[in-house]
Amino acid sequence: MSGGRTRRMPRAERERQMLDAAVRIIARHGYTAASMDEIAELAGVSKPLVYLYLHSKDDLFTACIRREAAALTRAVRAAVRPSSPADRQLWDGVRAFFAYTAEHPDGWTVLHLQARTHGPRFAAEADALRTEMTAFVTRLIAAAAQESPHSRDLPAHELAGLAVALVGSAESLADWTNTTPSATAAQASETLMNFAWSGLGNLMSGNRWAPPGVAPLSRP
Fold this sequence. Notes:
Elements: H1 11-29, H2 36-43, H3 47-54, H4 57-79, H5 86-103, H6 105-114, H7 120-147, H8 156-179, H9 185-204
């Protein structure tokens, strides 16, 4: 920084500036190539101050991942009203997920791409988000099955598999949407729900896919 004294501000605000800068730089250049000098310059602080607040580049990256994961989780949960039917809760959550990842593409890149490709420590942070989202979706699918006209209990392994598939599809679709100029968050939301809900509807009504000439798998 040049000239004059650094403006005093609350530690939380200063740290937010550092994390904002780190998310942007890491998303654009990748974690390995991200420079602490560049992060400090973008944040408008000295590099020693970044180290004083966040200790190391690894700790800075971990803080970025945790912040972005918490913000995404809050956005999804805030959009879901527990009093709504399960299918509406799922739809509201899906829309919030794609809206957030579209509005915060750098944060999503840090969470889903950078965190997963730079070692187990960072991957574990991203996995914690996926685990929470999967548990949330599992509960909604189970509730939707109960609320359906056929009111059936899906096996636990099937619920878990469906939730993992839905969350994984959402993550991949968010990546595609953010890198495809013609795609929008609203379109991604509808695509995922049409894809997922058609299959879920068949399961709930007892209709299961099977290869031609092969009997459908029976439920345990």
